[in-house]
Design brief:
- With 184 residues, the chain is mostly helical.
- It has 2 domains: 55 residues, Homeodomain-like (Arc Repressor Mutant, subunit A), CATH 1.10.10.60; 116 residues, Tetracycline Repressor, domain 2 (Orthogonal Bundle).
- It is 72% helix and 0% strand.
- The chain has 9 helices and no strands.
- Helix 1 packs across helix 4.
Length: 184
């Protein structure tokens, strides 16, 4: 089956994400992907000239649906957003995230592609929710939204394998954090 066939392409992308999670970016190579996907290394290079582009395409193809909920409360919006990221979770999210961080430090092309195609999609959801929460008076005016976005994303990714992590993030971290603010 040619690599252009959607089913075949998904097999390759699954192999890419599995290899990245297992070995990280430095040891990731087309040989490992080719072996796991039962494809030739030459056919992979024909379609994807670099491992950064192959990884980015695999991530883009496997982005979950990213709805923009508006439950009327920031904590509930965050809960719904995180659930949309985590259901279903067919890949080792923490391994992929760590591989991307490692690779982004070594490969400027990967860092640029990741920021443009992956990070932006996830960050936008939380940024919109933060702006709505600020407008509703749920958050302190001096809150660093970008820092909160980073904290939420990092905590989710690094603990995504734990059962109940989304409720723990929202009820055990976020609610106590924002619950201390009372608008004047």
């Amino acid at each position: 089956m040619p690599l252009d066939a959607p089913e075949r392409q998904q097999e390759v992308f699954t192999a890419v994400l599995d290899v990245l999670a297992a070995v990280g970016y430095a040891r990731f190579n087309m040989d490992l992907v080719a072996a796991r996907a039962r494809a030739s290394k030459a056919s992979l290079y024909q379609r994807w000239p670099s491992k950064a582009r192959l990884i980015t395409d695999a991530l883009k193809a496997n982005l979950p649906a990213l709805p923009q909920p508006d439950a009327g409360a920031f904590a509930e919006d965050v809960r719904l957003i995180l659930r949309s990221w985590g259901e279903p979770m067919p890949f080792d999210t923490a391994g992929i995230f760590l591989g991307l961080l490692e690779g982004s430090r070594q490969d400027a092309d990967l860092a640029c592609l990741r920021e443009e195609h992956i990070d932006r999609a996830y960050m936008e959801q939380l940024e919109v929710a933060i702006e709505r929460a600020k407008a509703r008076g749920e958050l302190p005016p001096g809150l660093h939204g970008d820092l909160l976005v980073t904290a939420l994303i990092s905590t989710f990714v690094l603990r995504s394998e734990e059962p109940g992590v989304i409720d723990d993030i929202v009820d055990g971290l976020l609610r106590p954090l924002i619950g201390t603010f009372r608008p004047k």
